[in-house]
From TrEMBL:
Protein name: Aspartate kinase
GO MF entries: kinase activity
Pfam families: PepSY_TM
Transmembrane stretches, start-end: 12-36, 131-153, 188-212, 330-351, 363-381, 387-407, 414-433, 439-459
UniProt lineage: Bacteria, Pseudomonadati, Pseudomonadota, Gammaproteobacteria, Alteromonadales
InterPro entries (alphabetical): PepSY-ass_TM (IPR005625)
UniProt keyword Transmembrane present: yes
Domain of life: Bacteria
């Protein structure tokens, strides 16, 4: 490939990354953390009873109790089974959700405000959903562009694949690390970018496909992807969800039921659908359909449908790494950290080449490490505050920006230290609120990584502070050593 093409690719890579750095960073950071969104839901209410399985009678009892207490009109009823990725029993409608114990007694209302804010930040950047989804999807396409232009711009991919130079002022090591992360994880980053772009562009794709192949009939396209509702004789009566659930052991003993939905509650077209995770398949779930009396009708056909249908139904698991339990989630988390660090290192390389403009550098560090602090303190606020967490998070981000502009001493290590201390405050508040439940599995699976982050951030900040002091001392020493020599040279010359 000629030098002009490589240079053009490098210019595009640089300026796209610089102008969209903040948005890309926030989407990547929130997405990396949101890989564990189901674990965060458990973490928010760690004292709830957890179980491995549940009987049909318990499911029926829990729903009956829920309906007796929640009489508002609803088009859907849901049961989340403990065989899903959350080992808890949840019954809900379109308005409220309650946990139930292993005997079918209702416990307390589900409250996952922080998790919802975090996922909303990743999916919509906390903007109105229609606009936010389009923007975030466009950023997914931008990620793909950055991956491709980065590879094209790389001058010696094969030769430098494992090069990591150390020493000097650290700029070369940062460039090498940026290039290695971008190269090694490129397939993952492309998957994330493509699937992320799909979620927002699905509506546009639907219109285009309908116009080209179905004379503008969008419903015809939807029915190709999402199996139409079954055509049944008019249904009436209470849905027999216990009877339907009991049949899953015979119909699909190898599958894990995730959740149950009663569609069109109280209407003549009412029917029950149980979604079950198919082993060794990337699709989200196969749907098993039953009439109101609990008689089996058939499957939705996602597991062995056309490849396009299977691909669409695999998008969720591909994007969030939810296909091999915690193993795939931790893999996605590590690769997500690499993608997030690409945003950070790319911007820092650009700042370094511009001789680190003081205000621009401080604002970037407040965005990177200040956002971690803002997320931690938002989680703290959620324990004592019932208002909008989106407002809390962005107020904290604005506060970080204002303080950064006014206080010149807020350098990178200081912001890194602030982020670690904020997470420590979160852990202390969490222990105070949840007490003995802090030692439950639901708590520890996230609290332990948070403790690791606190230790690392404090250690890393201390290292950077010492390094900066040593550099200043070295500069002063060099200056003092050169001054007498200059004077002596002047005397010799005289």
């Amino acid at each position: 490939m000629d030098k002009i093409t490589k240079q053009n690719a490098l210019n595009a890579h640089t300026w796209v990354g610089v102008f969209l750095s903040v948005l890309l960073f926030l989407v990547c950071l929130s997405g990396t953390v949101a890989v564990f969104h189901l674990e965060f839901e458990r973490w928010e209410q760690p004292h709830i009873e957890e179980m491995k399985n549940v009987s049909p009678d318990v499911v029926e009892k829990a729903m009956d109790t829920f309906l007796a207490q929640n009489t508002q009109e609803s088009h859907h009823l849901y049961v989340v089974f403990p065989t899903s990725d959350i080992p808890r029993l949840v019954v809900e409608n379109d308005h409220a959700a309650y946990f139930a114990d292993s005997e079918g007694n209702l416990l307390e209302q589900e409250s996952v405000s922080f998790t919802e804010m975090l996922v909303n930040l990743h999916l919509y950047l906390n903007l109105p959903q229609s606009w936010g989804m389009i923007l975030v999807s466009a950023l997914g396409a931008i990620i793909c562009t950055l991956v491709v232009t980065g590879i094209i711009a790389h001058k010696r991919i094969a030769k430098d694949a494992f090069k990591l130079r150390r020493g000097g002022n650290g700029q070369q090591a940062q460039i090498d690390l940026h290039n290695r992360f971008g190269l090694w994880a490129a397939p993952f980053h492309l998957v994330i970018g493509i699937t992320g772009a799909y979620f927002g562009m699905a509506g546009i794709i639907l219109v285009v496909v309908a116009s080209l192949n179905y004379e503008g009939d969008r419903d015809a396209v939807i029915q190709k992807i999402f199996t139409p509702d079954p055509v049944l004789a008019p249904q009436e009566g209470k849905p027999a969800i216990g009877r339907a659930f009991a049949q899953m052991e015979t119909l699909a003993p190898e599958k894990s039921p995730i959740f149950l939905t009663v569609h069109e509650v109280g209407e003549p077209e009412q029917f029950i659908e149980i979604y079950a995770k198919a082993p060794n398949r990337m699709i989200y779930a196969e749907g098993y359909r039953f009439d109101t009396a609990g008689n089996f009708i058939g499957v939705a056909g996602y597991e062995f449908g056309e490849w396009g249908k299977q691909l669409v139904w695999a998008m969720y698991r591909l994007h969030f790494g939810d296909f091999a339990g915690l193993t795939s989630k931790w893999l996605y988390f590590v690769l997500g950290v690499m993608l997030t660090m690409l945003c950070v290192s790319g911007m820092e390389i650009w700042l370094s080449k511009k001789a680190h403009p003081p205000l621009a550098s401080r604002l970037w560090y407040s965005t990177v490490w200040g956002s971690v602090s803002a997320l931690a303190l938002t989680a703290v606020a959620d324990m004592f505050f019932t208002g909008s967490l989106i407002a809390v998070f962005w107020c904290l981000m604005l506060l970080n920006t204002g303080i950064t502009v006014g206080v010149k001493s807020l350098t990178k290590p200081i912001w890194l230290l602030i982020s670690g201390l904020s997470v420590m405050v979160l852990l202390i508040a969490y222990a105070a609120v949840h007490q003995s439940a802090t030692l439950s599995v639901a708590s520890l699976q996230l609290n332990i990584p948070m403790v690791v982050y606190v230790v690392w951030s404090v250690y890393r900040a201390n290292t950077l502070i010492k390094r900066a002091k040593n550099a200043e001392t070295q500069i002063e020493t060099d200056a003092s050593n050169s001054a007498p020599q200059s004077a002596q040279e002047k005397r010799v010359n005289a």
